[in-house]
Design a protein that fits this description.
Order of helices and strands: EHEHEEHHEEE
Radius of gyration: 14 Å
CATH superfamily: P-loop containing nucleotide triphosphate hydrolases
Number of helices: 4
CATH architecture: 3-Layer(aba) Sandwich
Strand order of the largest sheet: 1-7-6-2-5-4-3
Length: 138
C-alpha cells in the first residue's frame, strides 16, 4: 500500500490509515534516507496511538518506551548510532522485538539479522515536489 503525504497537515490522517491497514501487525522497520521523515512519521503514529507527548528521536538512547491506553507498550528505536548487533543485544533488543509489543525501528538494516520474519518494512521516500511517499505491505 502507498500513502502520499503532501504536507505536515496530512500526517494525522496518514498515521490513522497506516494503523488501520496494519492493525494486526506490531513490528515495523522504517527505511529511508537521512531526513526522509522517518521520525516525523513515527511521532505521528505515536500520537495517533494515544501517546500524548512523544519525545522525538531516541538517537542517543537508542530506544524510547511509551505506554498507550489503547495499544499498550510501544518501543521506538533509532539505531543510527548502533555500531554492531552486539550493542543491540546489550540493550535487550531481543526481548523487545519478540515480546509482543509494538516496535517502530529506524535504521533497521543495522539489525536485519535479528528482525522477526513478520516485520513489515515501511519505505519513506520524497519525490520531486518534496512530498513523502510511504510504501508498506507484505
Amino acid at each position: 500500500m502507498t500513502i502520499e503525504i503532501n504536507t505536515l497537515l496530512d500526517l494525522p490522517a496518514a498515521a490513522k490509515i497506516f494503523l488501520e491497514e496494519t492493525e494486526s501487525r506490531k513490528i515495523f522497520a522504517f527505511d529511508g534516507q537521512m531526513g526522509a521523515g522517518k521520525t516525523t512519521f513515527v511521532l505521528a503514529l505515536l500520537k495517533a496511538m494515544g501517546v500524548e507527548d512523544p519525545e522525538g528521536s531516541p538517537t542517543y538512547s537508542l530506544v524510547n518506551i511509551y505506554e498507550s491506553p489503547a495499544f499498550g507498550k510501544i518501543y521506538h528505536f533509532d539505531l543510527y548510532r548502533l555500531n554492531s548487533e552486539n550493542e543491540a543485544f546489550d540493550i535487550g533488543i531481543e526481548e523487545m522485538l519478540y515480546g509482543g509489543d509494538y516496535c517502530f525501528i529506524e535504521w533497521p538494516e543495522k539489525i536485519s539479522n535479528l528482525l522477526p520474519e513478520n516485520t513489515i518494512w515501511v519505505y519513506i521516500r520524497s519525490n520531486e515536489f518534496n512530498e513523502r511517499i510511504v510504501t508498506f505491505g507484505d
